[in-house]
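Sanity check

After download, print the first record. It should look like this:
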Amino acid sequence: MSNSSTLYTYQLSDFTAWDAANVLEFATSRFAGIWIACDRNHTPRTPAYKTSFIRHLQWEADCFVFPYINISLVLNVHPTMPDLLRAIISRFSRYQTGTITAEELHDEFVEHCSPNNPALRFTHRVVSNYRYDWWKDRFELLGLELPVLNMQEVMEMTQDHFEQLPMGAMLVPGLEVTGQVEGDALFNQIVAVRAHLHHLGEAMASLLEQKNQIVTGAMSTMTQLEVPIAELEQALVNSGRQFVVKE
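Expected structure tokens:
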């Protein structure tokens, strides 16, 4: 769990479209990680296995997806949603309305993720460590307890996820948003997005400045090496000439 000082106790009034987008991207990463792990194991896909798998997959959706989509609807915001997550939600909707069975949902989940997609891990930012990574064990035999997670826990897990990504892959803002107006959800979302974009702009400028300093240092080193390299080349030429004269 992250010990970052930027974390605080989340409440519904603090939740922004930016938070929703981050949570949903984190959820998508978990779904991608689940598919990769299950695709690599060779556990027999019995009806009991598929039923247990969907029970655990339902827990994922109930903890990391549906509550935050519902909150977004209440706040009248529309967070971005990866295509993979959109496809999974569509299949869950069919399952919840009785259109498909748990076994069919399992098969469709596996089929949707599988078509020769070596970039699945990178596209959806799969990382090494997840809390409650039930898919790494024989979940269908162990009967793992699936806890109820509150918003604070989910936001901490989301930040932990992004902290595992390479520097610059994703910048999760932890700034305090000011200038919001009580009772005006849409205006507050605009203020939050503006603050986050400004924060990201500053972070990107700092990152580019660091890269520029590295390039400048490398060019300076190359310049300092030009004279020794030229002297070495001349020495090799002279040595070659002396060798030819002796022959």
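If your output differs, re-run the checksum step. Summary of this record's structure: Residues 222 and 229 are 10 Å apart (CA to CA).
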